[in-house]
Amino acid sequence: MKPWIVAAALALGLSGGAASAQAVSDSSAPVDISADESEVLNSQCLSIWRGNVEVLQDKTRLRASRMTVYYQKRSGDGGCSATADRIVAEGNVFYVTQEQAVRGDMAVYQYAADTITISGDVVAVQGQDVVRGDRMTIKVRTNDVKMESNAKGRGKSGRVRAVIYPDAKKNAAGKP
Question: CB-based contacts of 57: which residues, under 8 Å, 6+ apart?
Fold first, then answer.
């Protein structure tokens, strides 16, 4: 299967770091977040973006109905750190780059584990290749991807499914 560098844009540089550098072609590009409304709850160390949320950085785009950024608490004074702990995007989540697109109902990026989990009728597309399942987990540093489904057993509807097209250039050159 071709590598899927999917959904790493959830990191989208919101707190910087290695994960965001892998997520986009230019992690130093500005992050542009827009929504119908935004709320910062310093007492809970979180920010909430609601209504037609769109996050842009370089040539990547994340869309969702709602996005919540959970920040780490500072030790000592109990204030909020500038470093995010996790990001949750909910409701018709789309992540799009020039090479791929992923759709799901919810996506969660966990900074400590450096993983992204997309759930709810997940569809990932790269070129003509399409993979479907209920849950996709990506380990950002290694780009390991696991697609899962709640349906089990041969012939069951809703199992993990992939349609992969051979690379025409390799086949034309007589290579496997």
Answer: 9, 12, 13, 24, 26, 27, 29, 30, 31, 32
Question: Is the distance from CB of 5 to CB of 143 less than 8 angstroms?
Answer: yes
* Tokens standing for residue 121: 């009728």
pLDDT digits (tens, 9 = 90+) for 68-101: 999 988 888 878 888 888 999 999 999 888 888 9
Domains and CATH numbers, the chain: 8-172 (2.60.450.10)
Task: Kindly tell me the sign of the dihedral angle through the C-alpha atoms of 42, 47, 50, 53.
Answer: positive
* Residue ranges of E strands in the chain: 31-34, 37-41, 46-57, 60-73, 80-96, 100-110, 115-126, 129-139, 144-148, 161-163
Q: Alpha-carbon torsion 126, 49, 83, 88, what sign?
A: negative
Q: Amino acid letter at 116?
A: I
Model confidence pLDDT, tens digit, residues 108-143: 999 889 888 999 999 999 999 999 999 999 888 888
Give dist(CA 72, CA 49) in Å, integer.
Answer: 18
Q: For residue 34, give both structure tokens.
A: 């827009």
Tell me if 138 sits within 8 A of 4, measured CB to CB: yes
Q: Is the dihedral of CA 153, 156, 158, 162 positive or negative?
A: positive
